[in-house]
Amino acid sequence: MKKKGIIVLLCLFLLSALLITAACSSETVSTPTPTISAQTTYPVVVTDLLGRSVQISQLPTRIVTTQPTATETLYKVGGTAVGRDSSSKYPAAVLDLPTVGSAYNINTEAIAGLNPDLIIIEALTQQSAISSLEKLGVPIIAVRATSVADIDQSLTLVGKVVDRSAAAAQAVADINDRIATAQGNTTGGKSVLILISDAQRNVYAAKPESYPGTVAALLKLVNPATGLPDSGPYPGFTLFTAEQALTSNPDVVFTISPAPAPAPRLSTVLPQTPGFSQMNAVKAGRVVELDPVLFLQAQGPRIADAVEEMLRLMNEVAS
Predict the structure, then answer these.
(1) Are 90 and 298 in contact (CB under 8 A)?
(2) What is the pTM of this model?
(3) How many domains does the chain have?
(4) Is 137 left (phi over 0), alpha (psi -120 to 50) or beta?
(5) Closest CA to 47 of 137, 156, 157
(6) What is the DSSP letter of 119?
(7) Residues 202, 312: one domain?
(8) Which of the four, 56, 147, 169, 262, has the lowest number of CB atoms within 10 Å?
């Protein structure tokens, strides 16, 4: 009887092991995991989004970010900062951090006072600040978000630097999966003009090279500003005149109004603006305000949010 009992127990054990193995195999097939880089070994030399080789001697624990793209990239991979620029307001946890000036006016003394061991900047808008920041004797890495590839590389870079490569790989996979899903739900072919205005009421259109233009391109939307020269204060935008507005015929006009209320929204101004008021989309009421934070200020890991939001608005307005 004892032998028989032992045999039964062994059979049950083997059956359980087989079931567990089968379940794990099934899960692996149905839910593929992203490629995860090895754990970071310090010192490590990385190449940032400006092509600079930067040595990180040890795991950074006191990080200062100087622009929203840098801040959101760091927090997306699970890192934290001890200081941030005044424009960085996402995620909510950063609101309690001391500020080190604005993204366009970095306060190096405030940064030095936080005793950082790493500074993360944005490549396009803050490259000129590197020489002054280097005097602090702290490693500096630059991130960028002009394309999905840039965002992927920035997340991977920061993930490696702060020893969060697994989280970075997962973030990259999630972003690309969400964008691919949105692309699968759009027919494309519609045309969209994305406009912004400056303090002098000049109107600029987003080219495909701009951040909001990149979002539109991901959804296969036709952009009337394609091929026009850069001009004005916004990178990737071009001055768009009343004459150009008259000859363009977008299905939808998106507007971005960076200035907070009570400043007027550009969407409410266009119907009274010569040239723009004659556009079919404007006359038909197919003019929609975009969130300036999501589509202009928060360039980076929230690009999937922007793609999904633009798709939702296109389906509502142009269907």
Answers:
(1) yes
(2) 0.85
(3) 2
(4) left
(5) 157
(6) E
(7) yes
(8) 262
